Amino acid sequence: MTNKAKLEALLTLINTSARDAIALYEQYGDVPAIDQAELHPLDNAVDQVALKSAVRILEGACAQICTTLAPPAHTAVNLVQVYDHACVRVVARERVSDILLKYPKGLHVSELAKKINIEPKKLARIMRLLATRGCYNEVDTDVFANNRLSLILLDENPVKYMILLHVDLITKGGSVFYETLKDPKIAYSYEPTVAPVMYSIDKNGTEGTFFDWMARHNGQRESYHTSMRGLNYIMGSLAVLTHFPFEKYSTVVDVGGGIGAFSLPLAKTHKNVKITIHDLPEALAQARDIWARECPEALAEDRVEFEDLNFFEQVPVQGKDIYYLRNIIHDWPDHESTIILSNIRKALGPNSRVLIHDYVLRQLSRKQAVIEAPELGVASAPEPLLANFGVGNMRSYQQDMTMLFAHNAKERTLQDSLALATVAGLKLEKVWDLAEACVMEYSAA
């Protein structure tokens, strides 16, 4: 294929995937506009796999054609001259979206500045950068209003708490990442206690892992568990409820389930299932309050139980149908992950299944992609798109860095996950590709 033919093929992918996304939105109503001030019904749909599949190709093809056609210096500087996170931190911490809810026609930046005590000309520059990104509308000169994207930053939205986690803490790890790579004491270590985030706050006398630090800060712990609910919308995680046949099973163990980011929707959609939530006592104390408020019928009908578990030292409740781990294994280096999975293996009955719901990193080598994809259930990118979907899968690679910064851990390729599972005595049965993350289904080997 000639270079021009590759570009033409990318244009075709852009056109086709965009039309696919438009058609999906039209099933729920009108197509959204960048300046609309309300969410679209599809935005909170449980099953967004088709939409995410279309957007994955659209984002990947758009970025690939721009990178191909733009001068390299143009693109290289764009990689680093990115201050969105600093601006988002300001508006998120100052609750700008909540303030603007009272002003649907917009609020002049001078008045907004008075409400949050920030110099107005600086605030105008922050708001204009974000509006250029599609977050907020500038409805008149220096007059800003909410739009569909800025509504994500409302206090009531759990995605905001994931955003705050990144802009307040993970960025600190990024700021010292190079130093950790060159520090002879820790450069080759994968100990969670010396992850870049912990390295960055060690000057305050902080010790232990990220989770140890969080356990000592009640507000941070509560915010973290709330942010896990945001993953339902960020990753489209709840699609597992419609794609995996939970109706065939009667018991599910949510290992490291926190306050029930997965289990609460499960209890509401599959009332045939008895749920056990395993986590540390402080997380379960918060969980009990939330379940009493949001799903009291599950408690009244004895469809959920809360059991303390340290998954490094204890075996989960035994002989259940499904053991579900969402975004757990990626928090830990290989040694710790193997311990977790080995303890779960001890709990399995002959027909039990382990579901590990995480990102699966794809290789850029198309030879490797072909090996992994068809027979194991992992979708491959159409040519001439990069074999791993390029920027269409960018969040999984950014998340890999998040895990490195926060925990000295990682997102894994399918081969990485298979190696861990084999050591722990698990056998891969199927990969459920949900367009962003995957659910890897294992049985006892």
TrEMBL record:
Keywords annotated in UniProt: Methyltransferase, S-adenosyl-L-methionine, Transferase
Biological process terms in GO annotation: methylation
Keyword S-adenosyl-L-methionine: yes
PROSITE patterns in the record: SAM_OMT_II (PS51683)
GO-annotated molecular function: O-methyltransferase activity
InterPro entries to which the protein is assigned, alphabetical: COMT-like, COMT_C, SAM-dependent_MTases_sf, WH-like_DNA-bd_sf, WH_DNA-bd_sf
Lineage top rank: taxon: Eukaryota
Domain spans labelled O-methyltransferase C-terminal: 210-424
Protein known as: O-methyltransferase-domain-containing protein
